[in-house]
Amino acid sequence: MASVAGRLESRGVIVKYRKHIAVVLLAVSSLLLATGCRDSRSIPVKDGRPQITIMVGGLEKVIYLPAMLTQQLGNFEANDIDVKLLGEQSGANAETALLTGDVQAVVGFYDHTIDLQAKDQCIKTVVQFADVPGEVELVSKQDAATIKSPADFKGRNLGVTSLGSSTDFLTQALAGQAGLNTSDYTRVKVGAGQTFIAGMNHDGIDAGMTTDPTVAKMVTSGEAEVLIDMRNEQGTRAALGGLYPAASLYMRCETVDSHPEIVQKLANAFVQTLQWIKSHTPEEIAAKMPSQYAGGNPDLYIKSVRDSIVMFNGDGLMKREGAENVLRILGQYSRNVKPVADRIELDATYTNQFVEQALRLPAQ
């Protein structure tokens, strides 16, 4: 009997073991199915043209205007690439889509490349659209009399796109330079556009960081006032102690290394757009954008373009001074970067190689 019991017990162990192996194999297979065909190093080609999907951290935001404008001007097509633009209101969510291989590139803030390197992920900016954030800290009309500077953020609810986003980093930097810790105020996720407006108008936030056209809408209506303006170099240097390169095109390092010819086509297209912006008026730029971006008020949209368009650098080059200042700020206020700031390799977070080549091409 003991022998039979032993065999039964042995069989039970074997069955359990086989079930365990089956579960593991099923999990691995599911993971491979979920991620195997989404490797961002593999760029699909149709009729000889690369098929690129770019996620933009807010397609309607003026800070990311070059993405849609490049499509509207036909610059992607002129460089023999097909590009699909996807909108996502948070840069933090856009970077996740890039890391999972759902998209091949992101139009978002450069600072994500540093933050991700701190997490042992290699992301590289290949075209730098702007040397400044293009962001504005708005204060609600009812709080404008008592919030005059970041020192007055204590005890307040401050709107950010999402926790871990660039607006979150910048909010912490503004407050930190005023001597406040994150425990002194509350960061509230309010997104952008209408959700930001609703948050401010319904007492969800007292102040918050956003961009045009939201800034133009709220200031023109009298619902908010500008507290800190980082749409130009002067305001950015005053607020952050230097340049803060923001809107950019970034990709996984493996993609850049594996497909330099495709990256070059993207760089060519975006540099052509940045040069076009510098040689045209806000009215001409606004006229090229999809009509729905004006939200039924073309004059207000032109104002939002006029107020922000100075942020774009016109050439797509990263300035070393700016990259160093971003690292300095994240090294102080980013929970991820601070412990490893001295090990961050800035040269791995951006390259001017493709833009420099694009600038050698004849002007369009």
Automatic annotation (TrEMBL):
State any GO CC term: periplasmic space
Descriptive protein name: ABC transporter substrate-binding protein
The compartments listed are:
Periplasm
Q: From what organism does this protein derive?
A: Nocardia huaxiensis
Please provide an example of a Pfam family that matches this protein in its UniProt record: NMT1
Similarity section: Belongs to the bacterial solute-binding protein SsuA/TauA family.
Q: Main localisation, per the record?
A: periplasm
Report keywords, A-Z: Signal
Q: Name one GO biological process term.
A: alkanesulfonate transmembrane transport
Query: Taking every annotated instance into account, which residue ranges of this chain make up the domain SsuA/THI5-like?
Result: 66-280
SUPFAM superfamilies per record: Periplasmic binding protein-like II
